[in-house]
Input
Amino acid sequence: MRIRTLGDPALREPARRVTQFDRRLRTLRDDMLETMYDAPGVGLAGPQVGISLRVFVFDDGETGPSFVANPVLVAPDGELLEEEGCLSIPGPYHETRRSSSIMCRGQDIDGAPFEIGGEGLLARILQHETDHLDGTLYIDRLDDEGRRSVMAELRRIELGIEEPPSRDPLRRDG
Ligand SMILES: [Zn+2]
Output
């Protein structure tokens, strides 16, 4: 699947709830996981591949390949400022404020409700990907200076003035 990048209107549209838990949804999950690992990234949401559905896939390195439909974030706790990157804003990373721990309630591939959550990278992924389903990008959560700095770096990379930073070994892009 082609990953949409900044400027693509698909990234800004709030995604629709999943109502059909069928074979097509399984295929979508498999294709999204393949695209995510290929990128490589730690998370990928429907709108990032032009699919307006409230779904995302992720793997923080411990969960293994995972899928959530219709996620709702609950019980946010603490605050953490850490570097974040996005497959749809390829290149830059920027420190982004997130809840340090959070729970995510959603449905699995069969539509059964389940809950997943925690802290660290997993908490960050759950917040980053749920944001995508509302048309929100991590740059929206930065102050003006942070956002300008990301946009300027992105432009320098696009113009070939600057090399993209070497891939984050922790693969934080989602
Ligand atoms: Zn992203």
About this structure: Residues 23-38 form the longest helix (16 residues). The pocket of zinc ion is lined by residues 86-88, 128, 132, 174 (CB under 6 Å).
